[in-house]
């Protein structure tokens, strides 16, 4: 019978633990996603709540004020987006007509130069379009289902956010009590530091992401309006908020606007200008805004971030793609302060100089 110190036995225990964790995350996602969103929103509002509490406002009232302000902001953004979608819907017949003209021109060109019958072209195109439509429809459907689920659970998420803000000291004391019981009282000071830093990192990262999204909403709207794109406010906000999803969001959002411009304009110059505009904006985002605002908050490398995105999509769909990156950042803060987990923090970090010569007190197992 293998002992507990057997490496194979320990590996099996770790593997079983990972399977159980992600199994629970997948099975209980309808229950856990609102709690996770509420937790992220609570972390985002912690600095504002602390400022109100310093002004002698009771914690419960401070939490309610913070949640109401955030809720008013979210509802205002949703109101603007709905109005823009209604305005965009009026242009859909024109878009459909131009798309049909483009397809007919393409059929005629191929028929004249490649001697391929139009009927055969349409049959092949219909087959390809059906597959792409199903794929795009699934992706768009996932997004709308996530948004609908968010709206349906908005009251629950709001309640979770307010209650987590109110009971955050009790939750912190619970974590510290667990550390004192299982890791010893000598590690309480470092555990206190880890809890505070975890909250600060998550709060600063989420605030930075929201700030970048708002800045890019303004810049994108102004830029698209100058270029002469209709519904510039809708497309500017759409690209900015899709950009919250790292790596994938910027390409997906800009591609939607470029495709729309390509269909609605009679010249290729406008889509090219729009593409160049988004390329420049992406460089500004990658090398100026994001490093300055969020770059130092969660130090994850590209591989770890991409894996978190794909794993989040697999477990929690679109909500997981947004939530799993800050979750991994919080996990890295914990990894960096626990001796046995430091290699994992180095693995997912974006810097090679994680180990310092002056050793800080860490939590030992």
From TrEMBL:
InterPro entries: AI-2E-like. It is a multi-pass membrane protein. The chain crosses the membrane at residues 15-48, 60-82, 143-167, 204-227, 233-260, 272-290, 302-325. Keywords: Cell membrane, Membrane, Transmembrane, Transmembrane helix, Transport. It is found in: Cell membrane. Belongs to the autoinducer-2 exporter (AI-2E) (TC 2.A.86) family. This is Predicted PurR-regulated permease PerM. It comes from Parapedobacter koreensis.
